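This follows on from our talk about sequence and fold. Can you supply me with one protein entry, sequence and fold together? Could you add the entry underneath, on a fresh line?
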Amino acid sequence: MGLYNLLYFDKSFKLFPVILIPDNLLETDAINEEFMGKKLEHFKDFNTDLIDGYDRGCHDIPALHAFKPDLIFYQNPIYIKDSFSPIKMSKQALCFTIPYNIKNSDFTALGSKFYRKQVANMWKIFVKDAEDKDFYSQYTDLTRKNIVVDTKNKSNVGIVAYLKKVLNKN
């Protein structure tokens, strides 16, 4: 909620309502209606405008590009249905993520071909410090791609400052 609120109240950005989709969107996964309902209520408790991204009529999730986003934030890009993966969506918008608690990550998973494939097309991956940047870049083999950004322990504030600078939103 912190990053959303910072962007929402910053006049430099026009924030599109949150498009809420389930955590696991692999092709074989069923949609968990109870989980979706709880997540919707959670956002409503914070008076967050949102679009329920699940079409209950046809039991599918509509294409995100229909909403014409400029930026797409992935909370966890590795468990995303192929048609919504960063690989596909990076053709439509700038995709970014924030991998939390890197020092406690499963480094075998981070270094796997599947994980590397899912994060390789990110525009930016924001981490809290230089040590996390080094760890993450090394294990995902992204050192030469220059997409991992150190927010210098400023977390969400650092992300907003970076977005404003790079996207000329001053």
Remarks:
- The helical segments are 2-9, 33-45, 86-89, 107-110, 113-119, 130-140, 155-166.
- The radius of gyration is 16 Å.
